[in-house]
Amino acid sequence: MKQKHYLNRTTILLITTFLLCCAHITLYANTGQYTLTFRDDPASTIVIGWSGDEGTVHYGTVDEGTNHTAYPLTHGVDRIGNAHGHNRKFARLTGLTPNTMYYFVIYDIVGQVSARYKFRTLSDNPNDPVSYITGGDSRDGFKVFGLYVEDCPSGNCLDKRREGNILVSKIRPDFVAFNGDFVMNQITSNTFNEWDQWLNDWQLTISSDGRMYPTMHTQGNHENNQDNFHMFDVPEEEYYALNVNGGLLRLYFLNSEMNACTGTNQLLWFQNDLNMHATGGATEPFWKFAQYHISTFSMGNGYGLVQEQMDCWVNLFEQHNIRMVSESHSHVTKWTYPCKANATKTDFVPDPDGIVYIGEGQWGAPHRELDFPGADKKPYVRDQGVFDSFFFVKVNQDSTTIQCVKFENVNAVTENTGDNLGGNLPNNATVWSPASGDMIIIKNTTLSTPDENDLNNIHVFPNPAIDEVVLEFPQEVSNVKVELYSSLGKLCSSEIVSTKSHTVDLTAACSGVNYIYITEEDGSVQSIKIIKE
Ligand SMILES: [Fe+2]
Prior knowledge:
Blueprint: H1 2-29, E1 31-37, E2 46-52, E3 55-60, E4 73-75, E5 79-83, E6 86-93, E7 101-108, E8 117-120, E9 130-135, E10 143-144, E11 147-148, H2 157-171, E12 175-178, H3 191-202, E13 215-217, H4 227-232, E14 240-244, E15 249-253, H5 264-276, E16 287-294, H6 307-319, E17 324-328, E18 333-336, E19 339-341, E20 348-350, E21 356-359, E22 381-385, E23 389-395, E24 399-406, E25 440-443, H7 450-453, E26 459-461, E27 468-472, E28 480-486, E29 491-497, E30 501-505, E31 512-519, E32 525-532
Parallel strand pairs: 9-12, 12-13, 15-16, 16-17, 17-21
Antiparallel strand pairs: 1-2, 2-6, 3-4, 3-7, 5-6, 7-8, 9-23, 10-11, 14-15, 18-21, 18-22, 19-20, 23-24, 24-25, 26-27, 27-30, 28-29, 28-31, 31-32
Fe (ii) ion (FE2) binds next to loops.
């Protein structure tokens, strides 16, 4: 019996060794942790990234499922990225047809085939709209002896990150502009595992039909220099601009880990690129937006002003008609009225011709407190709060709309089904709905004749209001009807206005939510939600 027992143990050991061996082969024969990156023209190129084995991308515009030999095109690995123990393979596809769905599988070196995925190239036609998600800060909370010492309200910051990722899969954006701070990457953490988790969690962004969403990335302060280059194959300098939909939008990705003034390579590149796409020039895009990780003036507790960015970037934004800036880093949420730097370059002030700033990085990262809460809110900040979220931006030639999507009731959100560029949010997504309204609309004033769009950048303040609210039109108006209604539809006041600035008396108005309806001479109407305190 004793001998038999010994043999059994040997057999078990051999079997175990064999299984471990096979498991090892299986692990490295597989590919996984798939990503898509735009590093060049998004209408005709894309980077397919993965972890695991080397392989060949088989692709085409017809869905051949996992039958890799049926795809007409193939492309091998162009580059391998190495960071934090991860070994990333990148196939840089070129010569793609704009605004076209592509299907692909990865056939690896031991003959295994991945699942079938698909992506859509962006357009080369600025008449086509585009919709994208911008947001950042998906790192976990800091822990001591396994316990969070930062505020992760759900008990686990990574759960909220995953909810945001699932929302991506349901929204089906045309791309995701991720604004830095992926993982903790600090001395006490295991950065290999953190990136492993991040890349695994990113697979939740893949829709149920295998559609994937290309990303663009900025560097956060929790990334090492060139982490994004090695993990996603963004351009090596980690600052760049992409031309979206053939001149509809020039999107700048700035690196706030470089000093905005003394990081001269970046600054000179930025100045030059803005000049190359100057307002009024032949290559002027319809829109210019920028994003970077660290907010120029943060609403998060204790962060405040980054003077170098105010001095050396904001002036360029304003000179070159950048209309929207997406920021991150301080784990609170804000959106501003159009605003500009003040005279001393120490803060912003509302200005109808200014820039809308949105942010500041709540893709699951631990929550922070507002620096200017309640009545201390900055006058140029339209709304602020603390909740997990990202922004959904839809760009047409004549207008850009911005919505803030909360990571709430994610499982109940219906997955969009369309694949056309410029889609909308699913109807039951939870959208931030503060008193000032649930959407920011920026009109493209360079396109507009005064008669068409002169009322689309009305500055309304204060809101909430007590006795009166001021409507500041972008220019003098003529015979505009301003009506104040209660939320139940009761007309509280009605006036005909022909000025640039008009004060609405609220003393006779109903308390609570009110709506100001502004009717132009041509009959077009817009409404503004007002809270009367
Ligand atoms: Fe950060």
